């Protein structure tokens, strides 16, 4: 019931925003855009997606050499699942299963790689969002500032907690023993279920060792950071800047990417699946506060989200056809 309400709220918010757009004017502006600008938009979008693919290669690299195409299937599938669940972090719980299915690495290493990807992502996002937050202080309403500060703090907290938890997975041993003892009392399937539960420490121990190798590697952090910056800062910043120019509006190109990261940080809060609707509304409020006309902000933010998030998520449906998602 909660999920239905969240989907409904997200779709309603998105529908309301789109109802404020003069479709004819937007279409006319896009048709009047120079073809070279449209080509650059396509190249920037493709480059950002490929850079995001490489972040998975960065965390899987210590365990196996993975082609960019395989990393892309992982990223697209995880992104697809993210749009089906209320929060980005909850969606990323599917990542170990998807990694194992696509790369063939064992479950312990897949868990470590997925955990490192989530933790490093959240830390980078929180730090960059904090810089953007500082840049908009005094320029947006107090309520909006508090909301963005909360989501930014949650990113940083989530990143640190995930990274620390990944290094202490063996602390689950006592809980596993208790659960196994309880499982043995289940009629007929108890012994089999208990056996599977007792196998968890073997996975968590190997995951903890593997997690330590990944999360403490400067090479992984640098390579991941390069891909993350291109995918989450440079590509969206360039895309929105070009779209703003096409609509006759200018925003400081150096601060624009920071504004976007901060405005989009709301996706971490489990308000709607994938942040749909709420993210667009929050970003619109931020840029309107910064002096950009609402009639320009709404279509530009929607186009940016469509190209950077929703279109790749739709593409992620295809690789999941070969996966048994019932394990989720």
| Global Rg | 21 Å
Number of helices: 16
Helix and strand run: HHHHHHHHHHHHHHHH
Q: How would you sum up the major sheet?
A: none
- Helix fraction? over 70%
Task: Describe the global form.
Answer: globular
For the record, give the distance between the C-alpha atoms at the N and C termini, rounded to a whole number.
19 Å
Assembly annotation? single chain
Number of distinct beta strands: 0
Which residues sit in consecutive blocks of at least 5 with pLDDT less than 50? Answer: 1-7
Quote the beta fraction: under 5%
Task: Give the mean pLDDT.
Answer: 77
The helix-and-strand class reads mainly alpha
Query: How many domains make up the coordinates?
Result: 1
């Amino acid at each position: 019931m909660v999920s239905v309400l969240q989907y409904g709220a997200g779709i309603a918010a998105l529908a309301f925003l789109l109802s404020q757009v003069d479709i004819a004017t937007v279409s006319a502006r896009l048709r009047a855009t120079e073809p070279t600008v449209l080509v650059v938009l396509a190249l920037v979008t493709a480059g950002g997606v490929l850079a995001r693919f490489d972040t998975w290669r960065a965390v899987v690299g210590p365990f196996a050499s993975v082609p960019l195409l395989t990393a892309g299937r992982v990223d697209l599938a995880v992104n697809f699942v993210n749009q089906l669940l209320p929060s980005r972090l909850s969606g990323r719980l599917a990542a170990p299963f998807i990694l194992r299915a696509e790369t063939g690495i064992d479950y312990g290493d897949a868990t470590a790689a997925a955990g490192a990807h989530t933790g490093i992502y959240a830390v980078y996002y929180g730090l960059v969002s904090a810089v953007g937050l500082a840049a908009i202080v005094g320029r947006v309403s107090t309520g909006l500032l508090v909301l963005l500060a909360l989501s930014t703090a949650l990113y940083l907290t989530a990143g640190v907690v995930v990274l620390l938890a990944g290094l202490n997975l063996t602390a689950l041993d006592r809980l596993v023993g208790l659960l196994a003892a309880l499982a043995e009392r289940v009629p007929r399937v108890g012994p089999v279920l208990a056996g599977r539960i007792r196998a968890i420490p073997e996975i968590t121990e190997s995951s903890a060792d593997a997690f330590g190798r990944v999360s403490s590697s400067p090479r992984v952090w640098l390579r991941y950071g390069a891909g993350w910056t291109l995918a989450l800062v440079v590509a969206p910043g360039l895309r929105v800047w070009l779209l703003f120019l096409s609509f006759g509006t200018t925003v400081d190109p150096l601060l624009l990417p920071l504004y976007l990261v901060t405005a989009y940080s709301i996706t971490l809060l489990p308000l709607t699946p994938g942040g749909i609707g709420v993210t667009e509304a929050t970003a619109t409020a931020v840029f309107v506060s910064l002096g950009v006309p609402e009639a320009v902000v709404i279509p530009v933010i929607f186009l940016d989200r469509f190209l950077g998030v929703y279109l790749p998520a739709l593409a992620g449906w295809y690789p999941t056809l070969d996966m048994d998602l019932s394990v989720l």
